[in-house]
Design goal:
Belongs to the prokaryotic molybdopterin-containing oxidoreductase family. The chain is α/β, with parallel strands linked by helices. The chain has 25 helices and 26 strands. Helix 3 (106-120) packs parallel to helix 21 and helix 17 (379-388) crosses helix 19. Bound molecules: ligand MGD (2 copies), iron/sulfur cluster (SF4) and molybdenum atom (MO). Molybdenum atom binds next to loops.
Length: 688
């Protein structure tokens, strides 16, 4: 028997845990702890522990598929490449769009970015960061000049007071949750704000249950109390920020007194006072947030407000502080860093900047130029264009995303994607989106490739190949390089190995410039910015000044605004959505992992017992959940863990898809949809 242990990083969340894959006779059969990672110190959550189970699932894609007369037919790579190249050559550049993937490596994302802008010459490229932390990228760039988590994961342990708002850290970033517990053991206090009494809430010293959509009001109320009592950091405000008087004038209004914010949010005024005092007086305060903050039509306002609180209390640039935007997917940070966004090349070099544009044009050397120096469409805009203006976008290349289950208002999204003339999907499973494609290409998963991914704390870490891919599946970047080759651009994609791709990334990206595979092989890996080969990397940002032009953090006045759709007589409850620890997004991997699937086989809707009583609904009963977008039949979970007037569904399950119900209204700046608040009604299903 041939037994090997291959060290790799987790393919699920942005925490970036390391473990070993156990390989027996050339096949991945299990996982074991890798103790030396400073991130997870040998521990993993259930998803990491069972991340080996889907790898050899019989449902993996093994060969290219081409749709003929409505049915998929197995094809060779050459047939698939020929068809794709012919089709793409027939469209104008701006009629094509690409969706990249926060699940794949930096190398894969870089390849798709170069393929879109260089081979297709289209400016339309985006990925699921739009649905996730686009509010963070826009909001933090406006206040700090740069849009990433400011501190590191180990640093959270140093904090004296941790404020978590809109992140169910213990279920969605469990090994960051562990750090919170380690801080608590050293005496830190935990304040938590979430409409649901989650496993994170259970660990809180002060828990604030509130109605979805009240975040700016809560944060303004904290600042109101802190300034009123003189707990603000006067020195930090004077030396490192601007706009304080404007912010102060707004938050000191009576609208943001605890009594008035109780009316908006449902949090008792006394609790708001107590929490603001605890936070305001803490020696160091770390703020953690995720989707509860970003996924709103006021997502950017929410993000800015979290940053304002941290500046007003001087909680930035030191250990145990920071605005810690917990990034979701394993490599969403990296996909953004690689420029899989409609406005930037790698390392946030703007496409509209003529200097940056020329730099990439020269570095890549396409004989017929690259996409123009113009911003492209965000994925949410693409969907609206496809449905409202059919024919403007005609062809799309999707690598590692499943929008037909993850987009808001999916009936509308499906209609939009179906309007395309030609759709290529490159995935590891035949997803809902792949099913409507014209060509499906089988990719390798994390266990079958060398590559890098960048975690939420900007730590660049390696994946290492543990087994061969199933069938004739290939590396994502390799497939893209070969499609480009079939279009006549073999020279521009002449990489032999993943390392070759990484070296090209490092050459054109200042923040990755000092990195290479040899340096990244060390257990501690490297945090960007890492500008030179002797630079140690940067775990904490903004220690002396911010990345804005004058180095000052920007404070401004932000009023609370209600969500785009609020309850009324017809749709009397607030609806919000999210996740469970056992499953991942559209379930492609976790529902093909028997251990995880067995824990939670299907979806549910959480309803408060008082609401259930009014509706005459019992625990375990099937109900009809209805919004202005659509309806689903789903099992009721009657529980005090959710606030009266609010209902929650996880979005993992195709048989009861929460996204048939969600609102596709967008934040005007970040273009993120409002997944976290809309209006819903519930009907009892009458027996026939
Ligand atoms: N197990 C698991 N882990 C994951 C994922 C997964 O699918 N499964 N996905 C990953 C990804 S991509 C991401 S982006 C992260 C997301 O990580 P989280 O943001 O932690 O996850 P969510 O469940 O979407 O939402 C967090 C909380 O927001 C609360 N909430 C709802 N409405 C509001 C509101 O208006 N305001 C506030 N403050 N809170 C509200 C919900 O009750 C929920 O508990 O998780 C990552 N980790
Ligand atoms: N209602 C509601 N909807 C939401 C959210 C919410 O909170 N509520 N959250 C939103 C957020 S934050 C996010 S990030 C999105 C996620 O939305 P998606 O990214 O669409 O969801 P995933 O299921 O993670 O899809 C990733 C796909 O990549 C494939 N894949 C995995 N590894 C590889 C690989 O190595 N190569 C290739 N080619 N493919 C691979 C998987 O099989 C899967 O089909 O969902 C959003 N949708
Ligand atoms: S916390 Fe995240 S990175 Fe760590 S094992 Fe769990 S899913 Fe993987
Ligand atoms: Mo996400």
């Amino acid at each position: 028997m041939d037994l090997k242990f291959v060290q790799t990083t987790c393919p699920y969340c942005g925490t970036g845990c390391t473990f070993n894959l156990v390989v027996k006779d050339g096949k991945v059969v299990g996982s074991t702890a890798y103790q030396r990672s400073p991130v997870n110190m040998g521990k993993t959550c259930p998803k990491g522990t069972y991340a080996y189970e889907f790898v050899n699932s019989p449902k993996r894609l093994t060969t290219p598929l081409i749709k003929k007369d409505g049915e998929f037919v197995e094809a060779t790579w050459d047939e698939a490449y020929k068809l794709i190249a012919e089709k793409f050559k027939g469209y104008k550049a701006e009629e094509m769009a690409c969706l990249s993937s926060a699940r794949t490596s930096n190398e894969d994302n870089y390849a798709l970015m170069k393929f879109a802008r260089g081979a297709l010459k289209t400016k339309h490229i985006d990925h699921c960061a739009r649905l996730c932390h686009s509010s963070t990228v826009a909001g933090l760039a406006a206040v700090f000049g740069s849009g990433a988590m400011t501190n590191s994961i180990p640093d959270i342990e140093e904090s004296k007071c941790i404020f978590i708002i809109g992140s169910n850290t213990f279920e969605q970033h469990p090994l960051i949750g562990r750090r919170v517990m380690m801080a608590k053991k050293k005496g830190a206090k935990l304040i938590y704000a979430d409409p649901r009494y989650t496993p994170t809430a259970k660990q809180a010293d002060i828990y604030m249950q509130f109605k979805s959509g009240g975040d700016v009001a809560i944060l303004n109320c904290f600042m109101h109390e802190i300034i009123k009592n003189g707990w603000e950091d006067k020195e930090f405000i004077a030396n490192r920020t601007k706009g304080y008087e404007e912010l102060k004038a707004l938050v000191m209004k009576d609208d943001y007194s605890p009594e008035n914010v109780e009316k908006i949010t449902g949090i008792p005024a006394a609790t708001l006072r107590e929490a603001a005092e605890l936070y305001g007086k803490a020696e160091s305060g770390a703020l953690l947030y995720s989707m509860g903050i970003t996924q709103h039509t006021v997502g950017v306002d929410n993000v800015k407000s979290t940053a304002h609180l941290q500046m007003v209390t001087g909680n930035l640039g030191r250990p145990g502080t920071g605005v810690n935007a917990l990034r979701g997917q394993n490599n969403v940070q990296g996909a953004c860093d690689m420029g899989a966004l409609p406005v930037v090349f790698t390392g946030y070099q703007k496409v509209i900047d003529p200097v940056a544009h020329k730099k990439f044009e020269d570095a890549w050397g396409f004989p017929d130029g690259i996409a123009p120096a113009e911003n492209g469409y965000e994925v949410t805009t693409m969907v609206n264009v496809m449905s409202d203006n059919p024919g403007e976008l005609k062809a799309m290349y999707i690598m590692g995303e499943n929008p037909l289950l993850s987009d808001p208002n999916i009936d509308h999204a499906k209609h939009a994607f179906e309007s395309l003339e030609f759709l290529v999907v490159q995935d590891i499973f035949l997803t809902e989106t792949a099913q409507i494609a014209d060509v499906v290409l089988p990719a390798t998963c994390y266990a079958e490739k060398d590559g890098t991914q960048t975690s939420t704390e900007r730590r660049v870490q390696k994946w290492r190949k543990a087994q061969d891919p199933p069938g004739v599946a290939k590396l994502d970047w390799k497939i893209l390089a070969e499609v480009a080759g079939a279009m006549g651009y073999a020279d521009q994609f002449a990489w032999e190995t993943s390392e070759d791709v990484f070296n090209e990334i490092a050459a054109v990206t200042p923040s990755y410039h000092g990195m290479n595979y040899e340096r990244l092989d060390k257990p501690e890996a490297l945090h960007w910015p890492c500008p030179e080969v002797d630079h140690p990397g940067t775990p904490i940002l903004h220690t002396q000044k911010f990345a804005t032009a004058d180095g000052l953090g920007v404070l401004s006045a932000i009023e609370w605004k209600a969500p785009a759709e609020v309850p009324d007589e017809e749709y009397p409850y607030i609806f919000t959505t999210g996740r469970t620890i056992w499953h991942w997004h559209t379930g492609t991997m976790t529902r093909n992992s028997p251990t995880l699937d067995h824990e939670v086989p299907t979806g549910w809707i959480e309803i408060n017992p008082d609401d259930a009583k009014e509706l005459g609904i019992a625990y375990g009963e099937k109900v009809r959940a209805i919004t202005r977008r659509g309806e689903v039949e789903v099992t009721a979970k009657v529980t005090r863990d959710i606030m009266k007037g609010v209902m929650f569904m996880p979005f993992h399950f195709a048989e009861c898809p929460a996204n048939r119900l969600t609102n596709d209204a967008l934040d005007p700046v970040s273009k993120i949809p409002e997944y976290k608040a809309c209006a819903i009604k519930i009907e009892k299903i009458q027996e026939a």
